[in-house]
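seq:
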Amino acid sequence: GFLSTIQKKSSNIEKSTMSELPLSYLKESLVIGVFNQENLLVAGYTLGTKTPLRLLSFVPENKRESLVVPFDANWNDCCEITCAWKTPEVSLLFMSSRLWPLALIGVLKSGKRILLGHNQSARLDRFYTALGPATIYSGVSSYGLTSRLFAYNRWRIVLCILGLWFFETPRRFLKREK
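struct:
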């Protein structure tokens, strides 16, 4: 589902660069599927808790050595939510009220103290960085797009959950009702 979504939405990214998702990464991660009432798979994501972390591959190789994990942490303290996808019928209201809060609660339960995030979209960058995560890398990604790699500590993860439930979900509900 993730690869299909990427290929449909990423006309400016060469398809061959996004065609592989290493099975070894998935075996070392927690892969979550979301099913609808008809028991059809409609969304999902992966919680990666072991190094090597996939999001680091978006940073050009010659820049990776100089990356520093904030909050007095190291890469083993980090986890990542990757490969998030949904089918068109899954609403943004569902994503903000259920999927993302549960994914973030999963991060808190993982025992990792840092959540890495990454985006290559100005719109998503504004959304994901509204609570002020620490920027680890900002520049051109390995895929040639403007990119940011950032980190949330546990406190900011809790703020994200609260923001989703008490700001973003009501906003999306009201927007849907108009």
